[in-house]
Write a structure and sequence with these properties.
205 residues, mainly alpha, globular
């Protein structure tokens, strides 16, 4: 249960923080409204969990061939998450203005965007590497991680769509954006503590 909770915390904190997906869906909501932006929202909420599963299956095949590589990837995954936490915590307040487009992204455009989204890659590889173990079925673990992202995607990304204009005004003030980013960064760190503790017990005791 502790590990499942950590996965949910990581999924929640990493999904709700500002990034390409959230900024794009926010501006889409402002420019096109909720109804016209629904395909864009669904593309993110379904496309990213599918990406996580695809990345996880690839890792599973690699772990079967080279079991020791799993521990290496786990350490690198923790490093990625700490790097992401640092980047979120130290992100400089910035304007979120965006040029209007003639039409919102389609479902498939938003889903395919995940594969060129740097934050999506960091989240997917970091989560799979950090929250899977060799003692259980890789596919099942990956599906659990994908499900966690699916469950949090709609409320976390949806709030940027529904409350886009209000959230945009709130984050425009530097001190509030810094506080928000710092809070999310701390949640990211808390989410990987069980994994760090597992590595410590394995190699230091």
């Amino acid at each position: 249960m502790e590990l499942y909770l950590a996965i949910l915390i990581f999924a929640l904190s990493s999904t709700v923080t500002p990034g390409p997906n959230n900024i794009m869906i926010m501006t889409s909501g402002l420019n096109f409204g909720i109804r016209r932006s629904m395909p864009h929202l669904l593309g993110i909420c379904i496309g990213f969990p599918l990406m996580v599963v695809a990345v996880g299956i690839g890792f599973g095949a690699l772990f079967e061939q080279f079991p020791v590589f799993h521990e290496v990837i786990k350490v690198l995954g923790v490093g990625y998450l700490l790097y992401l936490s640092w980047m979120v915590a130290t992100a400089a307040p910035s304007s979120m203005e965006s040029d209007s487009k003639s039409r919102p992204l389609s479902f498939f455009q938003a889903a395919l965007f995940q594969w060129v989204n740097p934050k999506a890659w960091v989240m997917a590889t970091g989560a799979v590497a950090a929250y899977t173990t060799q003692n259980a079925e890789i596919l099942l673990q990956v599906l659990v991680i994908g499900l966690a992202f699916f469950l949090v995607a709609f409320p976390c990304v949806g709030v940027w769509l529904v409350c886009g204009s209000a959230l945009k005004r709130f984050l425009r003030e530097a001190r509030y954006q810094r506080l928000f980013n710092l809070s999310m960064a701390l949640l990211l760190v808390v989410s990987i503590l069980p994994v760090v503790n597992e590595l410590r017990q394995t190699y230091l005791i």
